[in-house]
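Action item from last week, closing it out:
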Amino acid sequence: MRPQLAVNSLMNYHHLSSLLCVLVLASCATPPDSETKPMGANVLSQAAIHAAKTGPVDFVAHVKPVLEAKCVMCHNRKALPGHGSLENRSEAVRTGELGAYIEPGHPEYSLLVANVKTLHQKVSVMPAVGERLTPDEYVILKKWVKEGAPWPAGKAGTLKIIR
């Protein structure tokens, strides 16, 4: 009977040490609002947010400021050569290896919308560095894409890369 008692004690110790390892690893996980990926502040004023949520989303007034402040610093031709860019409409709707950043009328197929709000373990939530989009900014981008992602040509539709 004594050998069985020793085996049971060893098994309990093994289970306890496994549980301790799991708890330690879980404590190392980055919480959603950690300092390494803090929730950002709204780029838009409350009046602009209300206007975008209750009326049509305007690219220059509602979308461009968010993309310039939180997206285009990485998603441009210089930072990601050969990959997608959000510098202008033609590049943003161009389909690459992973799809198009923006599928006008279809936020469910648009990488821009999917990657800002993803909960998938294998896909990094965007932006990779800096402040994340706020829930208001996410709703506005999603609504804008659903409305067809109207994006003016020329200077009004060209994003400045702010670093």
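Closing note: Residues 1-30 form one domain.
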